[in-house]
Amino acid sequence: MFAYGRSNFTWNGTLRELQGSWTERRGPAMTASASCSSGLEVLLSTLQNGGDVESTLNILNVLDELLSAGTDRRIHYMISKGGSEALLIALVKAGRSFSPNYTILLPLLHLLAKVGHRDRRIGVKAEEAGAVLLTLNLLRQNAQHGSRAAACLWAIQVFCSSVSTANLIGANHGLDVIYCLIPQCSPKHLPTIKAAIDAFAALLCTKANVSSVVSKGYVSGLLRLYEDWHSKGSEHVAIRHALLRCLHKVTHSTAGRQAVLCQGGIRLLYETSQTCLLSRGLESLVELSVQLMRKCLPKTPLPLTSDQSAYTFPLPGGPHAVPEMDAEPDESSDESDDDEDKPEADYDDDLETDLNKLRLRPELDRPKELLPQYSRLCPELSHDFQELDLSSEPDESSTASSSSSSSDEEAARLNSFPFRCSRRDRRRSTARSDSETEAKGHTAAVGQLEARDFHSHSSILSTSPRFRTMVREARLKAPPGLRGDEQDDEEVDAEESQHRTMIDRLLERHGACIPHHDPRLYRAAAAKTTSIPGFSILAFPDFWGHLPPLGQEPMAPRKPNIQRQKVFEDVRRFVNADDIINQVVFDLEDSSLQCPSDSLRFFSKFECGNLRKAVQVRRYEYDLILNADANCNQHAQWFYFEVSNMVADVPYRFNVINCEKSNSQFNYGMQPVLYSVREALEGRPHWLRTGTEICYFRNHFCPARGRKRTTFYTLTFTITFKHNEDVCYMAYHYPHTYSALKAHLRVLQKSVDPAKVFFQQQNLCGTLAGNWCPVVTITACPASRGWRDMHQLRNRPCIVLTGRVHPGESNASWMMKGTLEFLCSSDPVAQSLREAFVFKLIPMLNPDGVINGTSQANTFLEQANDNVASSEAESPGTNMDSEGILKAIDGLKTALKDDNAKLQENIDHLGHEINGKLDNIATEVQGLAERVDEAEARVHQVETWAKEATEALCFCIEQQRKTQLKVLDLESRSRRNNVRVFGVPEGKEGNSTIQYIETFLRSQLQLPEDLDLNIQRAHRTLATKPPPDSPPRAIIVNFLEFSTKEKILREVWKKGKIQVGPSIIHFDHDYAPEIVKKRREYNVIKKALKVKGIRFQTPFTNMRIHWESGTRTYSSAREAYNELKRHGIQSEEPVTADGGSRAEWSLRELLGWQPADNSGARLVDPEQTGEPVISRGVEARGEKRPVLSPTIYHAKGFLYYLNSIGRTPLVFCDYHGHSRKKNVFLYGCSVKETLWQSGSVVNTAGLKEDPGYRTIPKTLDRLAPAFSFNSCNYLVEKSRSATARVVVWREMGVLRSYTMESTHNGCDQGIYKGLQIGTRELEEMGVKFCHSLLSLTKDMKALYSRRISHINVLDHKSHNCFEDDEPPCVEEIEYSTDCPALKATDLDSDVNSNMAGSDEEDEGDEGHRRARRGRGSVGQSQQSSMKSRLFPHLMRQASNEALS
Which of 908, 1005, 1196, 1269 could form a disulfide with 1051 if both were Cys (CB 3.0 to 4.6 A apart)? Predict the structure, then answer.
C-alpha cells in the first residue's frame, strides 16, 4: 500500500477509513481481493461503482490531495491505472440524474480537468464514455452560474485534445454556446471568461470548426473583444493572451487569415503592440501579436517578370558529346554558351550499414582506354630537367630576348582589353602616336580623380563616356573624307591609349603594394574570361586588390528584439503607405532604367556580381532581389554588387528579400563585407565586415509565378557610409574571381625559382563557356639528373587538392590561395613538402559558376548562333508596262467581287446552322459541367484519401520490413547454437535422441572423452513423419555453448564424408527459413562453379568465390550471376525471391516506391552539406555528365588515371565553405565509425582499419587556431555517397580523403573565439593544412627538429559542437508555428482558483471582493482551508494521525 504523506494529511489513515467503509458495504467476500489491490485501485473502483455523497467527496478529496503534491508522475501513474476512465464514468453517472448534485460534479470536473490535461487520449475516452455531450449540456444549463460554467469549460478544453471530439462539440453548436459566454469586457467573472476563451481556442484545432467560426463572423468579434480588453489597461493580460491564441488558431487557414486582414486586424494588432511596447510586463502580448501579423500579411509576389534566372541558355546539343581535352587552350576562343548543372547533396542520418558497400570498390565509370589521355597532367614524370645541366650563368642575349618576349606578350595582353569584351586591331601607328600625344594633355586629370569617378557608369576601368564624347565631337569636325572606318579606328585607338595612360598614372599615384597581385595582369586575364552576358566592366576591388585589415573583426552583437523592430517596419508598409516610394532603381534586365538623382545607384554586371533588382522602398531603405542560378529558379544566396551616390553618416537599410535558407549565420554575429573605393585610393584597400541591426527571418514574399516553393527569407542589415558620393561594393563574403585566380597563378609562376621549384600550370579541360579549368603541379626539382634523384622524384606520393566547386563558397578560394602561396614560397616547411610530395591542385572546379555569380550551380552553355546570315535578299526587277498592269488589276477586282458574294452566302448559311448546333451544345455542356463539378469534388476527396492512405501504407510497409528484419535477426540469434543433422534414418535414434547424437558424434569424430558436449536438446524437425522411401527428417541439436557447436562443425568438415550404412550424414548450421530460401538461390551458381572446378563458399547469405585474381564476395545470387557472365561461365539464371507483400509490389509498380533501405541515392540540398556531387552511382553514370559537368568528369578521370598507374593520392582534400557552422573542420570517411554510429549488427572487433585518417585532423587541431577537431565527422551516409570525398575514398582507395569546410562567419573556440574570420585567417588555414602534411612524411622527427621549430603549436581544446546548425535563434525566424499552448500548471492554477471561488459565491458581495483580490492562483493554505470546511472530520483525523 502506498504511503504518500503531507503535514496535514496522511494517505494511510484516510485509506484505512475508506477501505473500511467500502468493505462494510461490499461484505466479507471482497476483503481478500481488497487487501491484494493497491490503494489507488481501491479508490478508483469505489469512485467508479458509486456510493453515497460523503464517500465520493472523500475519495475526490483524497485524489486531489494526492495529485496536488509532488510531480506529474503521480498523475501519469493514475492514468495508467485507469484513472481517467473512472473519473469519466463517475461524471456520467452523476450528471445523468434528474437533479445533478453539483457538490460532487464540481470537484469531479475540476479533478478531470487536471488529470485530462496530462492524458493524450482523454478526448477519445470521453467520447466512448458519453461524457462529451453531457458536459456540453451541463454547460448550457449553467451558463449563468460562473463557477459551474468554468468547470464545464475546462473539461471541454481538455476533451478537445482529440480532433474528433472537437468536431463533435462543434457539430452540436458548442462554438456558439461558448462564444456567447464571452461577455463584452465584463470583469465580474474573470475565471469564467478566461475559461470560455481557452475552450474556444481549444475547439479551433480542426479545420471544420475554423471554417465555421470564419463563416459566422466570429473573427470580427474576437478582434473587437481584444480591442475592448486592451482599452481597459494592462491589468487583464491573461484574457488578452487567450484572445490572441484564438486568433492564432483561426489564422491557420487561408480563410481565417483573409478574415483577419479584411476586418482590419493587422492595423489593430500593430497599434495595440505599439502601446504594449511601453510596458515591460506586456512583452508576451507583443511577441504573439508580431507573430500573428507576420502570418496575416498578404503574400506579395516578387517584383519580377519571371522566377527564372536572368541568365538562361539552352543545354548543349547531343547527349554523347564529350568536351575535348586539348593539350593547349585556344587563345582566340570567344564562345559564350551556357547552362547550369545542379549539384546534389544533403545531410541525412542514413548511415551506410552494408559492409560490402563500405569496403568494395565499384568498377570504373568509363573505359580504361580513355585514361591515358590524362598522362599529360603528370609532367613531372616525363620532364627531362635538361636545364639542370646548363650553366648557372645564363646567356645575356637569351635572357634579354626572353624578357623582351615576355614584355611584348604582356603589352599585347594589356592592349587587348580597354575594358570591353571586343578587341580591335590597331592599324595606323601614326594615329596611335597622335592619340598618345593628345592624351598627355589629360594626364593631369588623374590627380583630381575622386571616388565617384570609379562607379560603373563612368568608370575608368571601362570605356569612359567623356572620351567617347570627345571623339564624337572630333568626328563631326573632321573632313568628310576622313569619317570612315579608318577614322573610327584612329579614334578608338586614341581613346584606349588615353584610357591606359590614366590607369598607369593612377597605379603609380595611388596603387597599393598588395602581395601576389598585379592589376595589369588581372586586367589582361579578365580580357579572356567569357561570361553569359559578356561583362565589360571590372569591379574595382578585384582590379585594385585587397589587403586584410590590421586588426581582427569581432562578431556583431545582436541588438535585443532587433528582428521585431524590423518586422514592425515591414508591417508599417502595409498599415501606413504614406512614406513608401516603391520605385525600381536597378534592373539587371533593363539597362535603360533611369534612377532618381537622390537615390542610391546599384550595379552588378561584372564578374562574380549578383544583384537582379533593387527597389527603393523608403528614402533610405531598399529591397534587393538576387539573381537565381543560371537556367533555374533557385539557389539565391551569394550577392556582390556596387552601390554609389550615397550620403555620408545616414543609415541605409538593405533587405535581401529572396533568400531561401531556413537559417543563416547572419543571426549569429556574421556581417556582410564592404569595400570603399575612397578608402582604397587613400591607401586602405580593405574588404571590411560591416553592418548593424542584422537579422534573418521569414518574410511574406512569394514567387512571381510558376514555382511551388513559397517560402522566402529576408536578410536585413543597416550600413552607414563614411563618405559622400563614394563608390562601395558589398558582398556576402570576400569575393575571389576566376580572373583573379588566373592572374595569381601567373604571378606565382614568375615568383618561383625554376631551378628549385617545379611549377607547371596546365588545363584540365575546357568549360562549356569556353573558359579553362587550370591544374597546377608543384614539387621540388631534383638535385641532379642522376638516376637516384630522378627515381626519387618520380616515386614521390601525390597529394590532390581541389576547391570552389560551389561558386558561392569564396572562402574556399582564399584557403587555396594560402596553400598555393605557401607551396611556392622559400619557407623551410614548404621546401620539405615539395621534396616529399608532388602536389596536384585544381583551385577552381567551377569557373563558369564563379564568373557568372551563381551560388551553387555552374553554367551549361550552348553554342551561340553568331554566324547566322543576315543579309537581305535582292529581288529581280520587272519590265511589265503600265497598261497591262491596269488590265490585270481590273480583272482581279471583278473576280474578287464574285468570290466575295459567294463566300458571303455560304457564310450566312453556315452561321445559321452553327448557331443552332451551338445552342444544343451549350445546353449539353451546361449539364456536363454540373456533372464534372460534382465528379471533380468526389475525385478530389478520393485523391486526398488515396494520398493519405498511400502514405500510411508506405509507412506501414516500412515498419513491417523493419520488423521482419528484426524478427529474422532475433530468430537467427536463437538458432545460433543449433546444428542440423541430415540423413539419419527415421527411428535410428531410439528413445533418446540426445544420447544417440552424443554417442554418434564421439564415435564418428573421435572426440576426446573429457570434452563435455553439453547438448541441451535434440529432436527431429516438426514435420510429419515421411514414408519409408522418402528422405528422413533432419535432427536439430542444441548445444549449450556456441564454441562447442563450432568445434563439432569444424571436425565434421575436416573429416569430410560421414556414412552410416547406406546413408550419408550431412551437418550444417540451423538457418531460419528466410535464410534458407536466400541460400537456395545460389544453387545454380554452385552447379556452374563445380563444373569449372572453381572453389567457392557460401557464408550466411553471401557467396565467396576464389578466382585466380583473388577472392571476391557477393551479396546476392544476381550479383554472382553477373560476375560469372563477365568471366564467360555459362549458368542458369537464378530465381530470386525478393519477397514483399502484394501491396508492396503494387506500390513499386504503380508509384515507383522503393523501401527505405534501398541504396539508391536521393535528391538532396547542397547547402546543408557543402560537399559536391561527382558521381551518382551506377544508375547515374550516363552520357550527360561529361557534357554538362566536364570539369568534374575529367577531374575524376584524372584521379582514376593516377590510381591506374600506381600513384594513388596519399591525401585528397576538397576545399569548401559551410554556411551553418562556425570554425574550420574536416569531413572524412571511416568504416568502423560509420558502423558504430549506425548501430550495425556487424561485429567490428575483427575489422582492421588504418586509423591514419585521423592524423591530419589531430595535427590541425594543434596547429590551426581556427580548426575544431570535435566538429569533424568521419561517417559515410548513403545520401552523401556521391560526394567527392566518399567517391575518392571508395573508388580510388584513398584513406585520407577529406572535405575541408570553412565557416563564413567566425570561431567560437580557441584564440579566435568571438572573432569573424577574414582573408588572413583563411589563407593561414591553407598554410596550416600544408603544415599538417608533415605528419605523413617518413622522416617526420628529423623534419620537426630541423625545419619547423618556428611553427607555433597551440594548446587549445576544440569547442564541442556536434550539430550541423547553430542553436535556435533568440527570436523566431519562422512564423508558421503555433502560439504557445496553455501550460498544465496554468490550468491547475485556474482550476484551484475556481474551486475557491465556488465556495465563496454564496457569501455575497464580500465574497466577490475576496475572489477579486485572490484572483490568479490560490495558495495551498487557502485550498486546505476550503477542504477543511468541506470535510472537517477527515482533516481532523488526518492531523491526529500525522501527529501520532
Answer: 1005
